[in-house]
Amino acid sequence: METLISRQEKIIKELDALDSELKQFDYFFNKAFSVEEGPRSDKYLIEGCISRAWVKVWSENNKICMEVESDSLILKGLLVAMKEIYEGSSFTEVNNSEFLLMKSVRVVGLLDQKRRESIEKVLKMIKDETKDSDRRIK
Amino acid sequence: MNLKELRECFPLLKQDITYFDNAATTPTCKACIDLTKDYYEKDCFNIHRGGYKGSLRSESRIDEGRILVKDFINAESKKEIIFTSGATESLNLIATSLFSSMDFQGKNIVTTEIEHHSNYIPWLMGETELRVASCEIDGSLKTKKVLNLINNNTVLVTISACSNVTGDFIDLKEIIEKAHYEGAFVIVDASQFIAHKKLDVQEIDCDFAVFSAHKIYGPTGEGVLYGKAEIMDSLNPPKFGGDMVSNVMKQEWLTLPSKFEAGTLNLAGIVGMAGSIQWLNNQDFKSLEERERNLKSYLFDEMSKIDGLKMFSRKENSAPIVSFSMEGINSNDIAMFLATKDICVRSGKLCAQGLLTRLNKEGLVRVSLAFYNSEEEIDFLISSLKQIKERMTKWKL
Fold first, then answer.
1. Closest to B381 (Cα-Cα) out of B348, B327, B319, B334
2. Fewest CB within 10 A of the end CB: N or C in chain B?
């Protein structure tokens, strides 16, 4: 059975197998083109991101749902990878897991402080959704 | 000096990189590094307050640095040279000082859309009208648009001598003449200009000028605020602390430049900046300028051949900076792709949201050259840009 951890491990394995920054660049671009266009609404804009990025996080039946979009295809590719990892995960899975993908990312442009901060914001949105839903249930 | 010898003056260039981000930071020259090391090893003592030999040696090196800067920009007196942490601090200091010293009620400040954020945001902090001269849709600035905004209520015109986005040199003569005719001060942001042209503050007759050392092959965290002595004398100090006060109880300040230099300065930074200026003084500046002109011309011509690439820069009367966009490809993706080949460029809003909004662009890629770059490096950039275009077509299919 697929879990958050197994989905993350699969992507990490794929990334680790790519022995150059350029190959990873292609990998994220392919991911960006693999999904439909996401919502470009100010409501979902990640403030402070170098490239504009929009992320919508919600939950259905206590499972995470996500839509992502970005002007930057490479950033969108990374967000799609996050979506693949987290979407369908239970709140327990989210709260008991660690986001490890960035350790395998070699594309230098995705590793600067501002982009890392944006990724942290997305992770916080996901975690917050688990808390907000808890509150809604109570 | 031939190209190989020139490049050897910059240890950073030994790395296997193609460095086209000179408008952000130029590589530190060896002369700067050597002098800084020498200072730390022999003379790094605090100045003004120690009566011992080391302190005096240190003071003497700072004084030499001040004289070098004075001569470098042809200021009238060394007391007109204030050391700061960079152009941003210089502009913030003068803004704070002007806002606390003058009555801005019913007055206005004139600036332009081409300004770097560091010469825009400080002027929003005062409670006065900020008049912003708009630029054209190609990013150029028409002198007339600035002149039209200056009137007898203008107390200050603050303008860049060279755009950090387009590289355009701005014709300051008429603007400064009109500002002075109306009784306004003029601040010139020379941050981009000074790496490519000789700045002569007396010739252009600006009242203030600012620049950073890291854009002239010097250290980071060091910069200059130039101000005409008679004006600076009349202004309140922007910062308070040690080494700027003569009588604490009466709040009487020391004379220039100390009045504007509270606390311990970045002494090693000043020595390092002096090293980079000495190095520049030892070069044939005209030939460096010519090298840069030729490189820009070559870059401009080669970029013109790429379909879908739009430049927001001009070939003539400009610094070797070319900002561009490519149809259908995000500027940050271009920069990240180039980074996979260790080509270093800048992308995004380039700290010039006003200009980017006018251009209707979310971001641009900026290639900024220096005299040590080569045509081979430009060829590598061009072939890489063609590659990303080809890959984009492939990805989209």
1. B334
2. C
Q: Are strands B343-344 and B18-19 parallel, antiparallel or unpaired?
A: parallel
CATH code: domain of residue A129: 3.90.1010.10
* Peptide bond just before B257 cis, omega within 30 deg: yes
B344: chain A residues, CB-CB within 8 Å: none
Name every residue in B having a CB less than 8 A away from some CB of A.
330, 332-333, 335-337, 339-341, 348, 362-363, 391, 395-396
Burial of A128 (C-beta count, 10 Å sphere; 0-12/13-18/19+): exposed
The answer to whether the beta carbons of residues A59 and A133 sit under 8 Å apart is yes
Bridge partners for B91 per DSSP? none
A10/chain B closest Cα distance in angstroms: 23
Q: What is the pLDDT of residue A59?
A: 95
Nearest CA in chain A to B335: A109
Active-site positions of B read 351
Token duo for residue B352: 């010039």
Q: Return the CATH architecture of domain B3-20+284-396.
A: Alpha-Beta Complex (3.90)
Binned at pLDDT 50, 70 and 90, residue A138 comes out as low
pLDDT at res. B3: 95
Token duo for residue B94:
């003068």
Question: What CA–CA distance (Å, rounded) separates B58 from A101?
Answer: 51
Cβ neighbour number for residue B228 with a 10 Å cutoff: 19
Distance (Å) from the alpha carbon of A30 to chain B's nearest alpha carbon: 7
pLDDT, average across residues A49-74? 92
Provide the residue range defining the domain that includes A61.
4-137
Say what the ipTM of the complex is: 0.89
CB contact at 8 A, B384 and B334 = no
3-state secondary structure of A69: strand
pLDDT of residue B49: 76
The tokens describing B84, both together, are 């700061």
Domain covering B31-281 in this structure, CATH number: 3.40.640.10
Tokens in use for B148? 């039209």
CA-CA distance, B336 to A21, in Å (whole number)? 10
Structure-block tokens of residue A128: 């917050």
What confidence score (pLDDT) does residue B96 get?
Answer: 97
Residue B51 pLDDT > 90: no
Strands, E, within chain A: which ranges?
A: 53-60, 63-70
> Using one digit for the tens of pLDDT, what is the confidence trace for B54-70?
999 999 999 999 999 99
- Report the predicted TM-score, pTM, of the whole model to 2 decimal places: 0.94
- Please say whether the beta carbons of B45 and B52 come within 8 A: yes
Chain A neighbors of B387, CB-CB under 8 A: none
**A107 or B384, greater pLDDT:** B384
Contacts of B334 (CB under 8 A, 6+ apart): B326, B345, B347, B365, B385, B388
Please report how many Cα atoms fall inside a 13 Å half-sphere around the Cα of residue A52, on the Cβ side. 14
**Contact between residue B114 and residue B352 where contact means Cβ atoms under 8 Å apart:** yes
Triad B314, B320, B326: Cα angle to 5°: 60
Give the closest residue to B277 by CA, choosing from B217, B225, B212: B217
